[in-house]
Predict the 3D structure of the following.
Amino acid sequence: MPNIEFAYNRVVHSTTKFCPFKIVYSFKPTAPIDLLPLPMQKHVNFDASKRAEFVKKLHDRARANIEKMTKMYEKRANKGRKKMLFEPGYLVWVHLHKDRFPEQRKSKLQPRADGPFKVLRKINDNAYEIDLPKTYGVSTSFNVADLSPFFGLEESRTTPF
């Protein structure tokens, strides 16, 4: 296990562009497999203030690399997503998941959504409180993933999703 840990901590990671050992100790360790003579580590021989400054700069560069990669990952993950925002008074469909609405989803042939229901208030961008009848017996707050906009002209509770 120590050899595996050493190997992992010596590999340059794609996010930080540094190996974890270098971020913590400010130099990359030499492995026993390296047959070259040991290089002079000019970063190790600093006095305390210069070494501290070097480590701070190293951490700043690693942080910048992490932020850059996070933005790239976020852009890639959100590529096909569409942001849904509802205002109070909007009509929405509520998705009837089997775990939350077991009575309404006993069969495959029953509707997958019900509505339209009015949005009472916006809790945040991801959560909304819906005017759901008490007969459902569940919480009235829903995630935006469980809601979809209603575009119909008439209100019908039997219209399939």
Summary: The CA atoms of residues 96 and 104 lie 7 Å apart. The domain at 91-149 is CATH 2.30.30 (SH3 type barrels.).
